[in-house]
Amino acid sequence: MKTLYGTQEQPQRIDLPLCPFDAVKMDEAIREIQSLAKSKQYHYVITPNIDHLQRLYLSSDDSSLREIYRQSSLSLCDSRVLKLLMPVIGVSVPEAVPGSTLTCRLFDQLLGPADRILIIGGDRKVIEALREQYCDLDISHINPSMGFIKKPQEVEEIVRATCALNPDYIFIAVGSPQQELLAHRIGTAPCRGVALCVGASLLFMTGQEKRAPDWMQTISCEWLYRMISNPRRLVRRYILNLIYLPGIVNTLRQHGPHTRKIKANG
Description:
Blueprint: E1 12-15, E2 21-22, H1 26-38, E3 42-46, H2 50-58, H3 64-70, E4 74-75, H4 80-85, H5 99-110, E5 116-120, H6 124-133, E6 138-142, H7 152-165, E7 169-172, H8 178-186, E8 193-197, H9 201-205, H10 214-218, H11 222-229, H12 231-255, E9 258-261
Parallel strand pairs: 3-4, 3-8, 5-6, 5-7, 7-8
Antiparallel strand pairs: 1-2, 1-9
Helix pairs in contact: 1-5, 2-12, 11-12
């Protein structure tokens, strides 16, 4: 395992009605993830964006999904647009920590030959590309079937296989909310290590999909680039995000936030 030097204060968690956010920068998040991986316990990391908040907003009659987000060991603001909106509800995070950037930096700067890495999701082409890019890493792979989260037997098989592999790092790339549901379910088994819900991050890393140019990311317009690149999948999503955004913001402003320190890792 590579070592990231330097110390870090215990992260501050901002508790919001729909989900929490941890007020950390990218480098702090990487150090915290390294600490979680060394723990004897199991942890999972989520990266909420506006689409996640919409889903949580609409799940008001079902608090179980919200509770899964609250139980995360680290919750990182995935969206620069969401970061810009946070002062409207009276909170702020020091910077956005996009899941795609985070995943790339973990592979480039943190993971080493001694780390046991498991990827759940992604097809063979993606995994082969990753193994070629990072030929010194020990990467195992589980590829669930479509709709697996509604197949209890398959979910149990995935959980058992994960525990048997005893990974230090688990990258779950099966889309939201499936990945958050699976990350939480793994935590009910005798597993350890840290799971990260990374969405399409592996597709960007292997060139299957392209990220927006740096200048578009800087001005918080990566969403526009993605929508133009894949309009069939994303136009409807972003329109719905916009429609529900006032209600989301109003919910967060009405209930208000409070902050606390994240408990120390076991």
